[in-house]
Structure formats: C-alpha cells, structure tokens
Amino acid sequence: MALLRAQGGMPESAVEEILRWASPAIHTVRLAKADNLRSARLNTNLRHRLRNLGPHLSFAIKTPTPDRDKVTRQIGNCGRAVPTLSEHHHPHNKRWTRRPEGSNWGDFGPDDELGRMGTITPEMRLAAIAEVKEGKAFALSLPLDLPGGEPPDAGRFGPKLWPTKLFGHEVYNFALTAKDICCDDGVTMCLQYSTQWDSLAHWGRMFDVDGSGVEVPVYYNGFRPGIDVLAPAEGGPAANKLGIEKMATTCVQGRGVLVDLAREFGAGRTLVGMDKLERVLKKQNVQVKKGDFLLIHTGYGDYLMGANKKPDPHVMETTGAALDGSDDALLNWIEHSGVVALVADNQAVEAFDASMGNLGHNGLLPLHDRCLFKLGIHLGELFWLGDLARYLGQVNRSAFLFTGPPLRLPGAVGSPATAVALV
Ligand code: UVW
User: Fold this and answer.
1) Domain map (residue ranges) of the chain
2) Distance in Å, CA 213 to ligand 1 centroid
3) Which residues does ligand 1 sit against, CB inside 6 Å?
4) Cα of 264 to ligand 1 centre, how many Å?
5) Atom 8, ligand 1: which residue's CA is nearest?
6) What is the pLDDT of residue 45?
7) What distance in angstroms lies between residue 241's CA and the mean position of ligand 1's atoms?
8) CB 320 within 8 A of CB 303
9) What pLDDT, on the 0 to 100 scale, is given for residue 87?
C-alpha cells in the first residue's frame, strides 16, 4: 500500500496527468491525511476522482522538488517495494515516470524525438566550419546496391529500379515529343540495406516505465509500440513518433571526427572496447567534443567495395574492427562524450552474434540499446569511410565538417544517406 501525498500547491494539471496514467489494476492506496488533499489546490471534481480512485490505486504523487524528491514509497500487501523517487523519476511525464538507468529521457523536453541530434547549436556548426581547411569533399556513401546479394535470411534487399509509365508507355528512353527524350523511374529497396541511418524507432526494449513491476515494450523517451509506432496490423507500418523525418529536420550537420581502427588493427576482426579505443584516439590525436559525429573506420567497407557485390559471408564475419557493446566502460564513455551520432563503415557499429544466441542483460545489441533507446544517439551504418580515412591519415588530421541528412521520409525507421565530409 502506498501513500498518496497531494501536497499543497500541486497544480491540477499534474494531478490530471497522474489520473490519466493511473491504472486501476495497480493495488491499493491509502490517501494521506485528508488535510493534504484539502490543502492541495484541487477543484472539487478532481478531489472527488482522487477519492474514488483511492481503493484501487498505488503510487505516490508529490510536487517535484530538487533534493526532496527522494523518499515517498512503501510496500504493498503484495510485498513489493515501489521504487523511490529519484533522478530517474519524472512524475509528470505522460508516458513514463521511471526512466532507464543511464538514460537521458526527458532532458531535452518531455516529448523529445530528436535525442542528442537536437543538441547541435549554431555555435557548434560554426566550429565545424572552422575545421574546413582545404575545401576537399569526400562522399561517404557506398553505392546503394552494396553490399550486394540478398542473403536469404537477412530480410533486406537492395534497390530494384523500375520505369514509371505515361500513357501506358514506360518512360525510359521515351520520346516524349518529336524532339524530347525522357527517363523517369522509381525504386523499391530496403531502407537499411546499404549506407543507412537508424532512427530512434529502430531499437527498443522491454522496460518497467511506471514502477508497477510490469515491463512493457517501449522506445526512446517512452514512446510505445501500438500507440506511437504502428505495425501493419495496427494501421502502419508507421513510426508516427521518432521517425527518420524528425532527424532530417535537424539537417544533420556538425563537426565530424574520424578514428581509424583499420589503420591500427588491420583488416581482421578485432573487438574494440574502451581500452583499445582510448589508446587509438590518443595515438591518432582525435579530440572528441560535445556535439560531434564520431566516424569509425573499421575496414569492413573497404572489403565490401572490393567484393564486386558478391561478399563472402564468412569473410564478412571476420573482417574489420567492431565496437564491443558488452564493455560498460565503452558505453559510459559514449554517454559522457556528448557525441550526437556514431557512424561506422560496418553493419551494426558494434559486434553482434548473428545466431542471436548470446543475449546479455542489455539485449542482443547493447550499444544499440544504450545509444538508440536510452540516449537518443543515432547510429550510421555501412557508410563509406575508406577514402576519407586514408586522406586524413596522410595529412595527419581527424576533424572536418560532416553533413549527412537522411531522407525526410515520414514514418520510416531507417534511411539511406549520402553524407559528405568537407575537410
Ligand atoms: C539490426 O537490424 C540488427 O540492426 P542494424 O541494422 O541497426 O545493425
């Protein structure tokens, strides 16, 4: 049984909010002294509704006050401790009151959908422009028909072009008039087949968002499958929240820095945790700043570029460095570095077990979990970084202006990108 404290001065909107998410399925409540309710500036209707909810409800409400939001709790007849209010507790959010440990949900606004990408300031963009010294530009996309092939179990296929039709004719080398020839086409492809951004709707997890002890499926900032992100049977597919078009509106431009793991570790598969990453950052004099796009050259893309659209699955599994998502020190560093995105030339930024057998407490892809789900850090995959990495190595530099918006495609959870580095 929990204590319901309605403190004097609690705004009615806050109580309304609590009533909205209060589930009658949750146990019992004992209202704090009636005085407390009376002292709260609630209208009669709200007071009445609170009293009626009394027998069914279990949680604590309290005006959030720094340093005082620590206590209010206690055990129910079910014998389970209700989580105490803490920095992870936001009693007034519509979708959640508990945020995951190590997350930044709510820090950029209660309904934020941009994550760290929304923290890039005009000053940061000007600082990025100041990194442009030579005006030399690098294309950072693979040809979008790479990797090549369609592994039967991968579920993703490359672009298939088709001509549009006009008056029943295919508009391809089409004599539109006696003088004019025209081509016009469409494409069908998986948005995450080749060079791609993952939106924040790409990766979620089960999490207990209200301390009720029940885990529910949820994405960054508590957006929900079935409500905000709709499967086909729910009226989708459509990421009505967190879709890739939200990222596109930020323009995805800022200071890029590249760390060249391939230069350090060679072409084979090397698992890179914090120790190794720190050593390479230092050796290559890569200064990572708040608001940066961190590009990671692993060598995987170089293999794909040379594999003539017929990459060998075994070689793919054993080629290129990959970040070790099971290394908490690495995940913590990513969190505290302030980077807005991680962009790699490999398939998932982090190493993963394709058999899906190796499931740790942070799921199959712990770096996806920390970045996409907890921190709103976008992930770029299968970017083409070979040319840029080699050039930067030659001139002993690591920073540049990065520009790489995704398609402004409403409701999509991923997108191809044709990014550019200006050095
Ligand atoms: C998966 O689909 C496993 O994720 P990603 O494409 O982001 O690597």
Assistant:
1) 12-88, 123-144+194-422
2) 29
3) 192, 198, 202, 347-348, 381
4) 25
5) 348
6) 56
7) 19
8) yes
9) 57
* Residue 186 Cα to ligand 1 middle (Å): 25
Q: What is the mean pLDDT of residues 258-274?
A: 97
The rounded distance, in Å, linking the Cα atoms of 297 and 343 is 9
pLDDT at 187: 98
**Can you read off the two tokens belonging to residue 158?**
């490359």
Locate the ligand 1 atom nearest the alpha carbon of residue 364 and give its number: 3
Which CATH topology does 123-144+194-422 take?
Glucose Oxidase; domain 1 (3.50.30)
Question: What is d(CA 345, CA 302) in angstroms, rounded to the nearest whole number?
Answer: 8
Query: With 90 as the cut, is the pLDDT of residue 355 above it?
Result: no
Distance 297 CA to ligand 1 centre (A): 18
Q: Ligand 1: which of 192, 205, 296, 349 to mutate, most ligand atoms within 8 Å of CB?
A: 192
pLDDT in tens, 46-61: 555 555 544 333 333 3
Atom 3, ligand 1: residue with shortest CA distance:
348
Query: Which residue CA neighbors atom 1 of ligand 1 most closely?
Result: 348
Please give the number of the atom of ligand 1 that sits closest to the Cα of 348: 8
Residue 254 Cα to ligand 1 midpoint, Å, equals 24
| Ligand 1 centre distance from Cα of residue 371 (Å) | 13
pLDDT above 90 covers a percentage of the chain that reads 73
The pLDDT assigned to 194 comes to 96
Tens-digit pLDDT profile for residues 216-226: 999 999 999 99
| The model scores a pTM over 0.90 | no
Closest Cα to residue 405, out of 252, 280, 217, 242?
252
